[in-house]
Amino acid sequence: MGFGRNRSGTEPVTARSPLRARAVLSGIALPVALIAAVYFVVRALREGDAVWWAEAIIAGAVAVIAAIDLLVLRRRMREAREAAAAGDAAARRDGGVSRM
């Protein structure tokens, strides 16, 4: 995809996204949001108050966002691994000489 090729700002050349930290946060948020959504649905069914339905929808939305984020992160981590492996293979093939 070449995210670092056409830089227009002053960001560092080696800037990296904290993918693992995002994965940990989304991995925690997903089960917590699912448990919260179930709890709020049960409360809404028992008490009939609209506020519990609203809470359940919000918790469900958080769970969906966390799940999508985990899928995106899995794809990005796989791409980063494959790019690193391709770079290592090219370095071995070229005898460690970098071509620019």
Short précis:
This protein has 100 residues and is an all-alpha fold. It is 73% helix and 0% strand.
Question: Could you walk me through the main structural features you see in this protein, from its secondary elements to its overall organization?
Answer:
This protein has 100 residues and is mainly α. It has one domain (19-92). The chain has 2 helices and no strands. It has helices at residues 19-47, 50-93. It is elongated, with a radius of gyration of 21 Å. The model has no long low-confidence stretch (mean pLDDT 84).
Keywords for this structure?
single chain, 100 residues, mainly alpha
Assembly type: single chain
Give me the secondary-structure category: mainly alpha
How large, in whole angstroms, is the Cα Rg?
Answer: 21 Å
Helical residue percent band:
over 70%
What distance lies between the first and last C-alpha atoms, to the nearest angstrom? 18 Å
Percentage of β-strand residues: under 5%
**What's the number of extended β-strand segments?**
0
Number of DSSP helices? 2
Mean of all residue-level pLDDT scores: 84
Dominant shape: elongated
Main sheet, how many strands, which sense, barrel?
none
Transmembrane segments: 21-45, 51-73
InterPro entries: DUF6343
Keywords: Membrane, Transmembrane, Transmembrane helix
